[in-house]
Specification:
- Helices cover 41% and strands 22% of the residues.
- It has 265 residues and is α/β, with parallel strands linked by helices.
- It has a nine-stranded mixed β-sheet with strand order 3-2-1-4-5-6-7-8-9, with helices on both faces.
- Helix 4 links the parallel strand 5 and strand 6.
- Helix 5 crosses helix 6.
- The two termini are 19 Å apart.
Length: 265
């Protein structure tokens, strides 16, 4: 069985973060391992508090997994502060030197929660831009996250096209620019590969108030599909279908009183 590692925060409501990553990895047919970076107090109505895990504990978790498991792909989500980012980068740089190729990391840059709570400090964002993003195989920002990384607003399809191209060149890695925050009934995700090609994935928006954890699910599903041997274009396609099916499966659920979870099963 192929092993996927999730490095992310804990969501006690189990709709996002480590809990949702594990559900997704399992549903995709892989074995999930975890490194918890932060403990959050949240539910379907929003994030109430965040407590970062001490960086030495993050490092010891990560090293324990890598010493014992043959991890095929790594998904990184919430990184709460610069100390945590530095610890992750140091371990990943060692892995990069050991394997001699692009580290198999998919990074979902979780910066601000759906309810507007900041999940990453400004100095941490600056650190990961310089040190983590160039190590990654794939980065999966949504439009607000891409705006944060680029430092300017994105409003039109041509802006999105240019943004994905610029991020790909800047960090030397594949970019999946997610289009869920764009206006309109159709949602277009754009995959920018380092060979210069662009692949679009378009689907109709599904009317649902239960969308908690879609970004976590997508990145974990991509990591799982890649671990199972798919090429990147097919892995994104499979993950997109998985998320769409999960949104449809969860749209009539009544779990919590706010932005409820999607359903993976």
């Amino acid at each position: 069985m192929e092993i996927v590692l999730s490095i992310a925060g804990s969501d006690p409501s189990a709709g996002a973060g480590i809990q949702q990553d594990l559900k997704t990895i399992t549903a995709m047919g892989c074995y999930g391992t975890t490194v918890i970076t932060a403990l959050t107090s949240q539910n379907t109505m929003g994030v109430r508090d965040v407590m970062p895990v001490p960086s030495h504990v993050i490092g010891s978790q990560l090293q324990a997994i890598l010493d014992d498991f043959d991890v095929k792909f790594i998904k990184i989500g919430q990184i709460p502060n610069t100390e945590a980012a530095r610890t992750i980068v140091e371990v990943m740089q060692k892995k990069h030197r050991k394997i001699g190729t692009k580290t198999p990391i998919i990074y979902d840059p979780v910066m601000i929660s759906t309810s507007g709570h900041r999940l990453m400090s400004v100095d941490c964002i600056q650190y990961i831009q310089k040190h983590l993003l160039p190590l990654c195989f794939l980065i999966t920002p949504n439009i607000p996250e891409a705006e944060q990384l680029l430092g300017h607003p994105l409003t039109t399809p041509s802006d999105y096209q240019q943004a994905g191209h610029d991020l790909m060149l800047q960090y030397g890695t594949h970019i999946l620019l997610k289009g869920g925050h764009a206006h309109g009934e159709m949602m277009t995700d754009r995959l920018f590969l380092t060979d210069g090609s662009v692949h679009e994935y378009q689907n109709e928006k599904i009317d649902s108030k239960n969308l908690h954890g879609t970004g976590c699910t997508l990145s974990s599903a991509i990591a799982s599909a890649l671990a199972l041997g798919c090429n990147i274009e097919d892995a994104v396609g499979k993950a997109k279908k998985f998320v769409s099916d999960a949104i449809r499966g969860g749209k009539d659920l009544h779990i919590g009183h706010g932005n409820g979870p999607i359903w993976n099963f």
